[in-house]
């Protein structure tokens, strides 16, 4: 008897195409693609697998649900509500699909600060020719630099590999990674973060937003960094208190910051970060790049095959920690 798998609405051409791909790859599954909430309410009572977001009020009807594929690598706050965490369903996500794109974005920030582009780009817009002295102490000599990568998952590991290729010493902070990836000189647990911060020339956050990481980069942590160090956040905006970052920059407690994610998105036009001379900002675009939907489809189809065959799922989430 086929195993019911539900694609939760709203539907799009993409989700319909993915549903067809799952049905073709897994004849053991009965793929159900309701267009309305009413259709989802009926189907979820039988579904054993699902893709998408389950509203809290629908969850009590999901008595047979064993697997849920989340529609993002790190779904927004609220996706993992207490009832879903307590439910026996296993949840998987789309992590690992952004590794190359976001690691390249991280390195673009690192190289920009190392070579003073945060100074020269505004000068270019003003048509000013102001070369810095050759021995300018704002230049970071990368073979003598240290990067502290907070979160050494797929993105952090790829960033470490690229950074090490420039001669940067990489220190990793990760709570659950057991190995030391290529390019990482040292690995530490989260409890060591404060002790490692003063060693770094670049502090790079790749961590998701979880109950433990919300607001964990605050004024006290900026004050532990070198005054010559740069802060980079491409993980989730809610991990960093922007008022504390502005205060640290104003006080000269760190040399600069580069952000792709923010506590408030879009970042308000009146926010002081926009006009700070030692700040680089991109509008949550670090993950942009080709092949992302192909990669999402591949993860989904692979997990559907695994689910149908009773094999361990890929990208399992610790629901209580949201990742």
Explained architecture:
The protein has 2 domains: 3-96 and 291-321, Rossmann fold; 99-281, NAD(P)-binding Rossmann-like Domain (Rossmann fold), CATH 3.40.50. With 323 residues, the protein is an alpha/beta fold. It is 31% helix and 15% strand. The model has no long low-confidence stretch (mean pLDDT 97). The longest helix has 18 residues, at 292-309. It is elongated, with a radius of gyration of 22 Å. A 7-stranded parallel sheet has the order 8-7-6-9-10-11-12. α1 packs parallel to α10 (292-309) and α4 packs across α6 (154-165).
What does this entry show, briefly?
This protein is of the alpha/beta class. The protein is built from 10 helices and 12 strands.
Which architecture of the largest domain would the CATH scheme give at its second level? 3-Layer(aba) Sandwich
**CATH homology-level superfamily of the largest domain:** NAD(P)-binding Rossmann-like Domain
Task: Please give the domain count.
Answer: 2
Quaternary state of the chains: single chain
Structural class by sheet pairing and helices? alpha/beta
The unreliable regions are none
Report the end-to-end length measured between terminal Cα atoms. 33 Å
Helix content: 25-40%
Quick one: CATH class of the largest domain? Alpha Beta
Strand content: 5-15%
Please, what is the average pLDDT? Answer: 97
Q: How would you sum up the major sheet?
A: 7 strands, parallel
**Count of distinct strands:** 12
Q: Could you say which overall geometry the principal axes of the C-alpha atoms support?
A: elongated
* Major sheet: arrangement of strands: 8-7-6-9-10-11-12
The succession of helices and strands, N to C, reads: EHEHEEHEHHEHEEHEHEHEEH
**Tally of individual helices:** 10
The radius of gyration computed from the alpha-carbon positions, rounded to a whole number of angstroms, is: 22 Å
The CATH topology of the largest domain turns out to be Rossmann fold
């Amino acid at each position: 008897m086929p195993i019911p798998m539900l694609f939760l609405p709203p539907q799009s051409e993409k989700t319909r195409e993915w549903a067809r791909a799952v049905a073709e790859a897994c004849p053991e599954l009965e793929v159900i693609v309701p267009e309305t909430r009413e259709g989802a309410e009926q189907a979820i009572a039988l579904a054993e697998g699902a893709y998408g977001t389950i509203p809290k009020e629908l969850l009590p009807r999901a008595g047979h649900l064993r697997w849920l594929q989340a529609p993002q690598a790190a779904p927004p706050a609220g996706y993992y509500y207490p009832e879903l965490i307590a439910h026996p369903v296993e949840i998987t996500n789309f992590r690992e699909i952004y590794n190359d794109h976001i690691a390249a974005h991280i390195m673009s920030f690192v190289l920009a600060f190392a070579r003073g582009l945060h100074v020269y780009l505004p000068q270019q817009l003003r048509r000013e020719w102001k070369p810095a002295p050759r021995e300018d102490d704002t230049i970071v000599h990368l073979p003598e630099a240290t990067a502290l990568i907070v979160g050494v998952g797929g993105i952090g590991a790829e960033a470490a590999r690229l950074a090490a290729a420039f001669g940067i010493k990489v220190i990793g902070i990760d709570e659950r990674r057991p190995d030391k990836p290529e390019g990482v000189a040292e690995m530490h647990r989260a409890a060591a973060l404060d002790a490692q911060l003063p060693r770094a020339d670049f502090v790079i956050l790749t961590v998701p937003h979880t109950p433990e990481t919300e607001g964990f980069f605050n004024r006290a942590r900026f004050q532990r960094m070198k005054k010559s160090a740069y802060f980079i956040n491409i993980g989730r905006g809610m991990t960093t208190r922007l008022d504390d970052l502005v205060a640290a920059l104003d006080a000269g407690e760190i040399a600069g910051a580069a952000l792709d994610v923010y506590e408030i998105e879009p970042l308000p036009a009146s926010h002081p970060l926009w006009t700070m001379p030692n700040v680089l900002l991109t509008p949550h675009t670090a993950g942009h790049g080709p092949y992302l939907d192909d990669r999402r489809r591949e993860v989904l189809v692979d997990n559907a095959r695994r689910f149908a065959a009773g094999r361990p799922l890929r990208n399992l989430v610790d629901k209580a920690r949201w990742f």
